[in-house]
């Protein structure tokens, strides 16, 4: 979902995504390739260097693969947006990074989807307010639709998406950008063009970033924040910032099934700590699982949500006056 640090340079793409060993580390990182391929969308950091590393180095190494040969794609990813679909679902990857860079203040606070992307959504994907396709819609983006932490979500593409959907159509939206894991209740918001957008929101940007996980949600009630992960661990071997508190690196898995009631299971996991305090990808920690389906009108339905970790924070909204504590009164631990 984007943001290859620090500015998406070709060298950073090679070190952080293509497995080339940098001088300052024991090994590089290879972006995982699924059985049939892997796709990506950009964030704002890739465009701090004008996207050259992302387009010229990363995309040619992604796309559709032969399951018997995952060394190079048979059809490389050509654009920074894409569509994956089956009989029940359509997953749409959006490029919100392209319009995010500003020469004046680095980050554009009013992000719009590019015209080329909007034309593709209308003419190729077939999104419109009168569409007859009743499959469930899942949108991936880097930037958030709303945030319990930021005063402004720094995005203005909600109205563009709302204009392409039938009135009241419920969708699932997953984004990154904020370096935390958070879950929002189903809600309907008014966009800048006074249109309505109804969605379930999930931020899956938890990526081992320092300090941000300690911030408390300022707008948990307003944004209907449901869960978030504020667990921290300390990276003891950092020579420059010893005992630096970090949020847990995490990811989500999606399993599509075909039953009478459930057609999608999403599990949210993080890396685990060994007994000596080192991160490991073995035996990942399962935080939460969701079961989803689609009704006859194409609305996404959340059939079940279950927490598997008692350290995941759940927000409880109450109108009663609470005494002052070190933790906000909106938050309790499951």
Automatic annotation (TrEMBL):
Calcineurin-like phosphoesterase domain: residues covered: 36-180
Top-level taxonomic group: Eukaryota
Name of a matching Pfam family: Metallophos
Coiled-coil intervals: none
Any GO MF annotation of the entry: hydrolase activity
Transmembrane segments: none
Protein's recorded name: Calcineurin-like phosphoesterase domain-containing protein
Organism: Adineta ricciae
């Amino acid at each position: 979902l984007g943001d290859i640090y620090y500015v998406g340079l070709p060298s950073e793409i090679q070190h952080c995504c293509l497995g080339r060993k940098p001088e300052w580390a024991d090994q590089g990182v290879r972006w995982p390739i699924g059985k049939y391929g892997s796709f990506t969308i950009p964030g704002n950091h890739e465009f701090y260097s004008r996207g050259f590393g992302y387009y010229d180095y990363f995309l040619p190494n992604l796309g559709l693969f032969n399951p018997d040969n995952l060394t190079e794609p048979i059809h490389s990813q050509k654009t920074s947006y894409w569509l994956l679909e089956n009989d029940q679902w359509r997953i749409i990857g959006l490029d919100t990074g392209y319009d995010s860079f500003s020469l004046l203040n680095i980050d554009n606070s009013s992000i719009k989807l590019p015209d080329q992307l909007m034309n593709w959504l209308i003419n190729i994907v077939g999104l419109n307010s009168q569409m007859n396709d009743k499959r469930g819609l899942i949108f991936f983006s880097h930037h958030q639709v709303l945030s319990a932490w930021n005063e402004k979500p720094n995005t203005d593409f909600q109205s563009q998406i709302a204009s392409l959907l039938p009135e009241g159509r419920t969708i699932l939206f997953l984004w990154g950008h904020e370096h935390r894991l958070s879950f929002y209740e189903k809600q309907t918001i008014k966009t800048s063009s006074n249109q309505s957008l109804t969605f379930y929101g999930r931020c899956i940007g938890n990526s081992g970033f320092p300090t941000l996980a300690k911030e408390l949600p300022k707008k948990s009630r307003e944004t209907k924040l449901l869960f978030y992960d504020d667990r921290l661990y300390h990276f003891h071997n950092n020579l420059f910032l010893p005992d630096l508190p970090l949020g847990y690196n995490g990811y989500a898995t999606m399993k599509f099934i075909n039953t009478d009631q459930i057609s999608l299971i999403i599990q949210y996991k993080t890396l685990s700590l060994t007994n000596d305090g080192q991160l490991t990808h073995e035996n990942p920690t399962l935080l939460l699982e969701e079961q989803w389906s689609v009704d006859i009108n194409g609305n996404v339905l959340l059939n079940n949500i279950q927490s598997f970790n008692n350290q995941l924070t759940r927000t409880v909204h109450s109108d009663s006056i609470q005494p002052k504590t070190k933790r906000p009164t909106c938050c309790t631990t499951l």
